[in-house]
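$ fold --in a.seq
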Amino acid sequence: MTRFSAQHPARDWGGADLSFRQPRWVASRAGVGQSSRVFFSCWLIYTFFWTPYIVREHFPAIALMERGSLNVEGYADWSEDIFRGPQGGAYINNNPGASLLAAIPLLLLRPVFTAIDHWNQRRPKADLRTEEEPILTRAVGAKREIYFLAIAFATVAMVMAPATAATAAYLCSCFAKIGVGPLAAAAAALVYGLGTPVFFRAAHLNHNLLVCDAGFIALLWVWQSRLGFAQLVCAGLLSGFALLCDYSGIVVIGTVGAYVLLKSKRRAYAALAFTAGLAPMIAALLIYQQWAFGSFYHPSQHFMTPTAPTARGYRGIDWPSPALLWANFFDARFGLFAYCPLLALAFAAPFVKRLKFRVPRLETSVLFGYFFLFVLFCAANQYSWFQPLTGFRYLVPVVPALAILALQTCQIFQPWLRWVLAIATLGQSFIMSAGHQNSLAGNLRWFWTHGLELPWMYRFWEIGAGVTWLWPAVAFSFLLAAIGLIWLPALRGL
């Protein structure tokens, strides 16, 4: 029996053997080069489209930089997602993983941010032109608006952008590992990285996308490795980090753990190694909960005052709701398939015939199992009803699994149709990410009134900067030039 599920090499972006069963990968220089180009392209584009919004997860990171503590009492009245703890202090209503990761660049650049803060305090108070966002209004009142803009940029450029770009680059390397041509592998990875809602979510600090990145890399890691002790520990660390970011990480732990057991011949050994990776992350979460709330096992949501949707069930976790399930799929403001219709092709993947390359049966089951467990979790999580405030995010961890299966389905189409689908999904993703108005119609209205003015440009206008058409013209020119420099060496060989 051959070790591959495919019989022919891939020749297009839709053809990718995803069995990952080669005994050894000696990557070509071209393959490594394309993965690097995917990484730097995605990193650059995600950073370019950063959004200037301070969100819940920023406050513990800022407090850790400013005061050496995750206690955000100094910002207790800045956000509805901050509440008073039962033992004093104030904390966000979520796990601390994203904040801890975001604190790394803030701590490394603390002298820079301190200098920006002092400069901001000395300059004249900004002339705020709108009062659309309470946090911005408070920041301007405290003469710290530039300080917070710098923090928002840094957490995208140094956390969200590289983490998500790395997942796309790793996917590219996995495609190259099993024989997909370098440019084809890069194109497939770019369709994932720039043509799906991970692009939209990478624009600001977001724990759901970090769960997505950690879970996806853990699954790929188990998929393509021989499951030695170090590999299993790494899979456990990634899965545990997903839980440290959000309790939906339970789905990541359950799915990756089950996959490890199904794939390993020495199950007790595999379970021990995987658990060894989980342990430090779970311990960090329990220690945080004990320190902040006086309870190892009660989540932060247990102590906050419930709102109308979250009063149902246990702190917003109820039986799965068909109405919420439907909304998570199709609501124009936050639905998975409203944001990326191409992903619906994933459901045809098990049924299409005569493919050059096919995801093996076990991995197909794992990917669909991962999807259905997340769907059930999010349909039970009443916090999902708050997504119109932020746009699609709760189901973002399933995007990579569906993207791989959708690429498999695309093999049945003619090349011209594959290109049409790729351009369409990239175009919609660009529109959603450029306007960041949480619906396609809202983003089209944004373009009608603002042109190519990005949210961060609009934010500078709000605080008094003289933003003109030159801002997007110059910015996009630099972006296109940088992308050209990244890809020109690869395209010369065509």
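$ fold --in b.seq
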Amino acid sequence: MYRLAYFKQLSEHIGHLTVRERYDQDRHETRLRSMEMLTGWLALFYFSYTLVDIYLLPDIALRSLAMRFLLMGPATLLLFAYYRRPVPIRQKELAGVLVVCLGTVVWCAILLGSKDPDVLGYFYAGLVFLLVITIVSTPPFEYSLYGSLFIFGCLYTTVFFLPGAHPDYVMNHLSLGVPVLVLSLMANYRFSSESLRLYLENTRVEQLRTELAARNAELEKMTYLDPLTGLANRRGLVRFASTLTQPDTPLAVAVIIVDVDHFKAFNDFYGHSEGDRCLRAVAGALQAACQGSGIVCRFGGEEFLVLSCEHATVANAVALAERIRLKVAHLGVAHAPTTEGKVTVSVGVCAGSVAPDTHIDRLIKAADDALYEAKREGRNRVRSGTLASPGSNVSPDETIGTQPTL
């Protein structure tokens, strides 16, 4: 069965809601404000036409006053009250259409009380109700269609009861009424379909923007995270270090470098897949030991680095390093080629204050020197280093890629 594109679009789905339901939800507040304003102006226009009734058809003056204000007055107040109720906007639009239809019936009933021949000329004004229900109030097309057909039927039923309404008059009236009906419905359909089309386009743009933001966030995450362990990579470390910059105040920082002992032998014996699992397990142990203090990153290969301001004293930094060493040892990851028979780590620590003239890479260099001291002394231990003097050289391989001044 043929269906207009407008109705096809309304029946489609956006998530778990139909387009109609989502459209009505999203436009509710804006549409309600528009309806309240239009209803106010239309009510003022409708009731002011009591003066036109009295001027053109004096014989229906009392009838017009009574029917307009005693019937349409309460109906208009009830409509405004209904606008305030927590019901879907489409029901409020339907209520507005029904009030316009009632206004048409009341107006026709008023004119039926006149015996003045001028009523035939005034009756052409009834076509304004078709314009109100289609172009002015712009309800959904289906409501405009049903309401317009009702008003059209009401007008051209009433016309036969007007005094002096001969067939030629009716045909002349229809020659204007039919085009007004058809063209106003066409205008309403175009408005309804274009409004829906623009809404769907905006919805798609918002969806694309959301998807793009999510993908950009994922790309940024990939930029700053190590894909194997999920820890920060060197870029992530640089970004974190840059946030610690305090130009006027020395900042206490601890750097802890962790190296998996005999990792090459582990890879050779168990294979690279097991090596990856081992690194992920060690990364998890580091995160558990640090408990969210500072940043834990994969510094390269089997090396990890912890940068912390919460454990910035030497004693606290060494205690954290020892906790890391024990956490890894307690994993119990088998490492047959070693005397311990399980995976262990060596840890180098350096804690100190960094200032505008002290690069964080000097702390990293000192921690790295302490790490190599731990390895020379037999591995599976923690050693603390001292901050090198400002004039000492820092190897490019021992830096984090940039030299942010803290």
